[in-house]
Amino acid sequence: MIKLLAVDMDGTCLDGRSRITDHTLLALREAAGKGITVVPATGRNLFCLPHRLAEGTLYSARSEDDRKNEGLFRYVISSNGARVTDIRERKTLFQAMIPKETTLSLLERCKGQRLVTASHMNNRYLLQGRMAAAAGRFIYGEDAKGIYCVRDMARTVKKSVFQTEELQFYFLTKQSRQRLKAILELYPELSAAYTSIYAEVFSKNASKGRALEALAGHLGITREETACIGDGENDLSMFEASGFNIAMGNAFDGLKKKADYVTASNNREGAAKAVRKILAAQRPVRRFV
Fold it and tell me: pTM score > 0.70 for this model?
């Protein structure tokens, strides 16, 4: 029996245009209705979850359709596993932050390297500069409730009482990517996940897998009772913490090789198909009179 299902967002539940379809939402609701604890597991910060998923759960429902999400999820793994939040109790169940001194040191070394800087702090997405913040709001659209513009990231970090969940650096040139990699070699206490346009930097103690293990332990759920669905490099650690692993059709080859099952791509509602496969395989609960 699967009792806990962790689902990645971008590239998994969201299609190539960053939309979550009605079919995918319905499949997740069915899983929750069957008693499975559905957990969004994302590189995003908490308040940048897909709005169609968050309305009625993280935010107040704005329509009858939004109200269908009530009870869909209670726990969120955000910022690549830097934080696990119980949104019902408004409690942090697990966190692995970048210390303030490390954040400030890295930001100083990255000055002049042709990088656009962002960070996750206090469940919010901070972007340095008005143009970067405007671009973020354009890209995220209705998912951009958690985006804030700051003039100087280092000054904001220095003044804040909160530690950093994650840093992001967007590459303006090919050389800036290589320079960032060289800089990060000086910080063995940090991990990084790269895409073609940016890098996500987080504590070595943070990963989706470690966060999933912490949540499963909190809920008293075993590895064999845990499943996950993902597509990216940052989902590999979840596969190590889960008993049944599903890779998207658009996943990178390394993840597919470790998967128990490969579903369709995110543009063909592969996540919904995967959830339905899990539900179809659930053993019926025996009732004794």
Answer: yes
